[in-house]
Amino acid sequence: MWSYLRGGRLVLLLLLLLQLASQSAALVQPLVVNRILDALQSGGSLRSPVVLMAAAALSSILLSMVAKYALERFGHRVIFGVRQNLASCILRCRVPDLERCSAGDTLSRFASDTAVLQGALSSAVVNGVAAPLVLVVACVLMSTIDVLMLLVVLGMLLLAGVADWLCWNRLYRMTGQLQDQLGRMTGALQRILVSFRTVKAFATEDREERVLRGYAEAAYRTGTRAARIEAAADGIAKVSIELVFLVTLVLGIVRVSAGALTVPELVGFLLYVVYLRGPISIFAGAASVLSAGLAAIRRIEQLRSLPAESNGTEPVIPPGMYRPGWGSTPLLSGVRLDRAGFTYGDKQVLTDVTFHAQRGLTLLVGPSGAGKTTVLNLIERFHEVERGSILLDGVDIRQYPRQHLRRKIAYVEQDAALLGDTLRAALLYGAPDAGTTDVMATLQAVDLCEWIDSLPEGLDTPVGERGITMSGGQRQRIAIARALLRQADVLILDEATSQLDGRTERKLFRTIVAEARARTVIAVTHRLDVARDAQQVVVLDRGRVHAVGRHHELLRTSELYQQLAAGMAEKPVPRHPTTV
Ligand SMILES: Nc1ncnc2c1ncn2[C@@H]1O[C@H](COP(=O)(O)OP(=O)(O)OP(=O)(O)O)[C@@H](O)[C@H]1O
């Protein structure tokens, strides 16, 4: 918890002092009441104690207002920092690590857990520290009136404190459980929202409703149990203070009768006991908010502890070997995979993959699950090659600073999402400085000019949730245009044209190859209509290179390729000798 307050500890101390000042002003009141009663008994002037009383009440109210505002503001500031740091951690963590996390649960940690933490940091930390301090001050003042009665009060509060502590311990576990359940519920809802059409098409609304209800019910049960414990802790605090009042009253009357205490002293002491209600219930409340805050910290820390991508990979490439930013100079020697190997867990996915993609188009084909996307992931360094190497421009890709490597590559993934509010923003996502001429030329290349001209707002048409609805093919063409605009040395397309018809796809590929004459294009496709235009075709089968060659050669030499061309190789076929 303290590490979250780093940089704000001085402010926290000031807030604590402010909180103490506001509560101390209230502490003066019983003393003043004592003086008023004395004055009444002795027939002295009431003016100055009454003015003092009003001043103490007013300053207590004013200080508590300022303290409340300052506390809230402080909490928001700390959480702003936590969210910034969390955003940075999320964006910098490794692709496989983040993909293992549920997106909904990550959202819940980022938005809800940080909000819970804000409550804990602002109210619980300051009130949790201020309330006991105020209690101590009150006890010191009470000791000036009657030590015996104070000892009785303390003994009873101690017993109540132990009972409350047991409750808070359970509450901490319960709130952690509740936040995990809420995270799972958000995850389930997020999955449904992303696949809403599938849910509708399969008419599984009832089943999904049951799933959501299950999570909501689990959260409800845990929340109810937590509320019971919270109420019990609150009840213990309140009952203890009422009992303390009654016992003090009885004991006080006995002591007044015995002449050990005066009536004004008894009234003053009882007022302190009444006053203790505030700090005790604040402390009890702070403890429950703190339990939730600690549970939130555990979940936030799990996200923050995901290792960053760049950990331990300092660039060792000689200066001048790479150009920062996306360049326009053609690659000298393209992308070369040399006996590259990779496993997912203990599953061998790629073995000794060797091919050289030079300028022009290299097609990567093969049956489903052959490892085509994995090859692209290795080139992008979403995963690290485990055996062999991948060279870009003759340099091992592990020697490039990761961001520079990725600036050299424009990647269009399967079902690429568009990021940006408008079509223009979506297009310029990877190349914010691209000029209008480049944008128009690229739109021409992907055959989108006519469609965009037909839109009333043209390139400024909103996209996204409430914006324009596009066909799958239009979306894919925007994604390709976005990648082309980046003018990167290498263009990687992972089934990026799967939603276009064969004729449009062929036309688009011809344009891409013409556009990228000086660059290397590596494209995964299941349709071989475009293979004639490719410089080479690499056939992958069960993680190995089955054959490499031009379309017409492979049609003669590779049975697997013939099957792929005929659209028959849905499943892996018996292994054939490798032709590299
Ligand atoms: N994140 C992952 N964790 C574990 N195994 C994976 C993961 N991603 C892919 N695989 C497995 O690795 C193998 C290769 O997958 P990959 O996606 O590279 O094949 P592909 O040739 O691109 O398939 P497709 O043509 O169907 O897209 C498959 O058996 C797949 O089940």
UniProtKB/TrEMBL annotation:
Where are the bilayer-spanning segments? 50-71, 124-143, 149-168, 243-263, 269-297
Q: Name one GO molecular function term.
A: ATP binding
The taxonomy runs:
Bacteria, Bacillati, Actinomycetota, Actinomycetes, Pseudonocardiales
Origin organism is: Longimycelium tulufanense
Q: Which Pfam families match?
A: ABC_membrane, ABC_tran
Q: Where in the cell is it found?
A: Cell inner membrane
Identify the residues that the record assigns to the ABC transmembrane type-1 domain, covering every copy. Answer: 13-292
Name the record gives this protein: Putative ABC transporter ATP-binding protein
For this UniProt record, give its keywords in alphabetical order, as a comma-separated list. Answer: ATP-binding, Cell inner membrane, Cell membrane, Membrane, Nucleotide-binding, Transmembrane, Transmembrane helix, Transport
Membrane topology listed for this record: Multi-pass membrane protein
Q: Which SUPFAM superfamilies match?
A: ABC transporter transmembrane region, P-loop containing nucleoside triphosphate hydrolases
